[in-house]
């Protein structure tokens, strides 16, 4: 992947991370989407088939985005999750595949009888 981010914005009111790449592609990635597709081992596991379904993340917020070298960012979420390193390639892939990935997530939630809503 040769496209590099040229601008990253947190749109707190709409709960979106907006990222514009050098190829003029711009993605608006919901915080919930980023949280449930975190590249951390807590979420993605240590290999295929070891993913952990994230539930109750509908209202999750982002408290901080920290640069990691010149290749990634660490996103700290307000539910305490702060171990995922999002490379530019991963963010680009998430943006490009957002509709398919989101539907897959909703399907997995439904199959598990789980919800996006947090528990009271």
What's this model, at a glance?
The protein is of the alpha+beta class. It has helices at 31-36, 41-44, 88-96, 98-112, and strands at residues 5-11, 16-21, 26-30, 62-68, 72-77, 85-87.
Tell me what the structure shows:
This protein is α+β, with helices and mostly antiparallel strands and about 120 residues long. It has one domain: NE0471 N-terminal domain-like, CATH 3.30.2020. About 30% of the residues lie in helices and about 30% in strands. It has 4 helices and 6 strands. The protein has a 3-stranded antiparallel β-sheet with strand order 1-2-3. A 3-stranded antiparallel β-sheet has the order 4-5-6. A hairpin with a 4-residue loop joins strand 2 and strand 3. The radius of gyration is 14 Å and the shape is globular. About 15% of the residues are buried. The model has no long low-confidence stretch (mean pLDDT about 95).
